[in-house]
TrEMBL record:
InterPro entries: Aminoglycoside_PTrfase, Kinase-like_dom_sf. PANTHER family: CHOLINE/ETHANOALAMINE KINASE, ETHANOLAMINE KINASE. Gene3D superfamilies: 3.90.1200.10, Phosphorylase Kinase, domain 1. CDD domains: ChoK-like. This is Phosphotransferase. SUPFAM superfamilies: Protein kinase-like (PK-like) (SSF56112). Residues 20-243 form the Aminoglycoside phosphotransferase domain.
Amino acid sequence: MSETAIARATALACFSDPQDITPLGGGITNINLLVRDGDRRFVVRLGDDIPEHGVMRWNELALSQAAEMAGVSPAVFHQEPGVLVLNFVEARTFQEADVRDPANLNKIIDLVARAHRELGGHLSSPILTFWPFQVNRTYVTRLKADRSAHSDLLPGLMDTLSDLEKAVGPVDLVVGHNDLLAANLLDDGERLWLIDWEYGGFNSPLFDLAGLASNNGLCEAQENTMLEQYFEAPAETHWRAYQAMKCTSLMRETLWSMTSEIHSRLDFDYAAYTRENMDRLTAALSKFREL
């Protein structure tokens, strides 16, 4: 797969003399390559639409361009079907421990809030809505049809999902990133960058905040601080809805992984990832039910 990807990147018309093409780690839905062309370097993201995950590359492109204009993501250099080429940023990719570092967390929350506030003003075309409750129901429908090995768990998850949706209640919409893994945050030593907009779309801000917390193991004190900083209000104002959305985010990641076990061709241990996220979901649901 890497050899095929490298050949495809080499043939892109946007490059005059592509050299030193190497795979980049971290992608679990795309193949990512680092390419040097003259004195510049670029990231080449190779990936077609992924209908089972609701990933549409035209949507990713629109959001990537808006994020560039808002100054939160690297610039788009070239695009064509199945290919997105971005300016390379010399930066360190965060690990979960980096996100939990208080010195970083405050900056990350500010970055997310800025993206929520500003991306909409830079969009030049319609984008998708990422409503996590429907996303999860769609996953379950597909998993049933695919006779997933996890089918026995699905009815219980759907009953739980309905309770979570009621607990979240009415929401305000923002342009969300919807995939706040540590690997999607970069630090160039002067500022942070937010990358990979393939799941982006209109959503409640609670989903990004919940994903940031659940994907990176924030403690309760950090969650309180995050909510207070983002909303400029006491954390208790949004606490129950936030906890419900955190469970919803973890359920989405679990169902995503169950689906990837069936459909993905990338070399990644999705079964282990499913178990990890199911454990996180179980723990979060236990905490939510105590509220």
